[in-house]
Amino acid sequence: MDKKEKTLVAKLEEYAEENRISCVWLDDANPKYIPVSFPEDRVVFMNSNWEYQELNSFALAYEIECVLHKSSSVKELNAYAEELIQAI
Which UniProt keywords apply (predicted)? Predict the structure, then answer.
């Protein structure tokens, strides 16, 4: 991750914490494993080895929105994630 991406991820983690969402980074996961969330538990699992590191901020925003909106609609969540990134 470049510096800009790391800064955005850090801000998203702060936002998640403010909204009582836990972000767990898995350090030994397969690079193919995508980030996931469990809205009912208010937790997001991110993969530190994910093959698309440049998309970590978008994936984290997306998973945070899954928790906040308890929605699995890709269209809705893409819009929410884009709004969150713009706001931060």
Answer: Plasmid
The pTM of this model reads 0.82
Given CA atoms 9, 12, 18, 20 in this order, what sign does their dihedral have?
Answer: negative
pLDDT score at 27: 96
- Give the C-alpha distances (Å, rounded to integers) separating 28 from 45, 51, 53: 12, 13, 15
What tokens does 53 get?
């590191």
Alpha carbon distances (Å) from 44 to 3, 48, 69, 70: 22, 13, 13, 13
CATH assignment at residue 13: 3.30.2010.10
| Contact by Cβ (8 Å): 47, 33 | yes
